[in-house]
Design brief:
With about 425 residues, this protein is of the alpha+beta class. The chain contains 13 helices and twelve strands. It has helices at about 5-20, 40-50, 55-65, 75-80, 85-100, 170-180, 200-205, 215-225, 310-315, 320-330, 345-365, 380-395, 405-410, and strands at about 110-120, 130, 140-150, 155-165, 185-190, 210-215, 235-245, 260, 280-290, 295-300, 375-380, 410-415. Strands 1, 2, 3, 4, 5, 6, 7, 8, 9 and 10 form a ten-stranded mixed beta sheet that branches. The protein has a two-stranded antiparallel sheet with strand order 11-12. A hairpin with a 2-residue loop joins strand 9 and strand 10. Helix 5 runs parallel beside helix 11 and helix 6 (about 170-180) runs parallel beside helix 7 (about 200-205). The protein is globular, with a radius of gyration of 24 Å. The mean pLDDT is about 90.
Length: about 425
Amino acid sequence: MKYSNAVKAMLFASINTLASNPENYAVCPRKDFSRNRKLGVKTLILLLLTMEADCIKEELYRYFGRTTNAPSKAAFYKQRQKLKDDAFRNLLFSFNRKCKKHLLNGKYSLIACDGSAADIFRNPEDPDTFFEPNGKSTRGFNQIHINAFFSILDKKFTDLVIQPGRKRNEYSAFCQMVDQCDAQNPIIYLCDRGYASYNNFAHVIENGQFFVIRCTDAKTEKILGFPLDGVEALDYHVERILSRSQSKKKRLHPELAEKYRHVCQKVPMDYLTENQTEYGISLRVIRIEIAEGCYENLITNLPDLDFGLDDFKDLYHLRWNEETAYRDLKYPLCLKAFHSKQYKYIVQEVWARAILYNFCSEISMHVEIPKKNRKYTYQVNYSEAIKICRDFLRNHDNPQTLDVEGLIAQNIEPIRPGRTFARLARFKLPMSFCYRN
């Protein structure tokens, strides 16, 4: 049995489990999905997973065939209204549990956290997502913000928090996902400098996990208590006591004055309350040279015995894999083309795209690329692999099967280490479907 068929069977098993208990995911449990329809729970989920960038009618024809028996657009609208928001979230967790796990040093899971904005249908009447005209758009635009946990070694999204663009809060989203994570192995969270805060550090520590978070020079100097001028390499442990009060008389340990750090009342710190006025935290500050004359600061709580100074450059560099995952999510997986104007259905489609990404990734990771005498090492072209896996998943009734592994192995690209490009941030309007509800 080919591995692609096994992965498809795992996804179908998760969908069947969900479909066998529709009352758990239906808006009206005793009414919704109680009748036998063309668009039942399983079919509806598979349709949403395999959608591309076409209009609803074309998506229905592509899935059911261009026949008069294909369901109508109205039927699709009515059926998708019956699914609760957490149906796809539970499906993603269920499928991920069935997939193989990869660990660093046989012990640690590597989870990258980052956020990305996605443009949605323009609606100036929605204050939570609408941004006024600016240099990007003369008419204004609407956005959602996607916060994601991404397993680097497994190449899968493990959790999402989707927020209206105007209400984006990456700090709270990170803490929420950390607290909800049900981990069987120790986790190392890899984050960019936008996540450097005492509250984020504390949430990871309180959950018994680890972090490596990039930090600016200014924040690092405040944590250390001394400047970084002329410091080229650093591996330094600090003990800090956090407090909301600046009064020296209220300190529980006045003899440790140099360890105290004031946390402003406006800054979130969930472990400072009326009953707990101080919070002790142990941090390890790393400074490494990533290029000639270019340095990065990393805040971590990883033990010295497992991770030396030389390990952190390679460890943090792995975080870039989430950036490429977002690229695949937006373009080959068509996250730029939502099939609804309503926020809750847009969220539904984001989860569906993440599940399809995980399905494609699980198959692609196990495709063997023929080794030849080449200048470069080759890897799977994920853009093509996603299209192949999408067609494979959509092929539910046709007895003709795709040679998924063979097709993916044909579409490969060279790995060119050391290449760098300027990052281009280009504003692109979402695809406009005038009929969307």
